[in-house]
Design goal:
- With 135 residues, this protein is an all-alpha fold.
- Helix content is 75%, strand content 0%.
- Helix 3 packs antiparallel against helix 5, helix 3 packs across helix 8 and helix 6 packs across helix 7.
- It starts with a helix and ends with a helix.
- 22% of the residues are buried.
- The model has no long low-confidence stretch (mean pLDDT 90).
Length: 135
């Protein structure tokens, strides 16, 4: 995809491949990608796991709330430009190291657990469908 676009741009503009041309190609792709907000992630994850957003961002360490919270952290890191600190604040004032640990844990679990991989994929699909709908 990106490489083909880059080659076509180089031919079209009769330029050699360069960093400048690659940046231009990537900017176009990034602009076309639907944006997902932290708020949308909180809403969709809470709905998917049938918990409230208050429970998702709250202090409880119960697995029923902690796992969806970790998934929300992971998705915010993957789907938004939010920093670890910003993600922590969005999820009840958690420390950036807590967010990093959660993201690493969910990434590992996705590799090992087919059910979790399907859940995260389903949530991502909902997020990307929702982000394409004009408000």
């Amino acid at each position: 995809g990106v490489l083909n676009k880059l080659l076509i741009l180089a031919q079209l503009h009769q330029e050699e491949l360069s960093i400048h041309l690659a940046q231009a190609a990537l900017e176009d792709i990034a602009a076309a990608r639907p944006t997902v907000s932290a708020e949308q992630i909180l809403e969709v994850v809470a709905h998917h796991y049938q918990i409230s957003q208050e429970e998702l961002t709250g202090p409880s360490r119960a697995r029923r709330f902690a796992r969806p919270r970790q998934i929300a952290m992971y998705l915010m890191r993957e789907e938004t430009t939010a920093s670890l600190s910003q993600i922590g604040r969005a999820l009840g004032g958690r420390d950036h190291s807590t967010v990093l640990h959660a993201c690493e844990r969910i990434a590992r679990m996705i590799e090992e657990n087919e059910q979790l991989r399907r859940e995260v994929t389903a949530i991502r699909e909902i997020l990307h469908r929702a982000s394409r709908v004009p408000i």
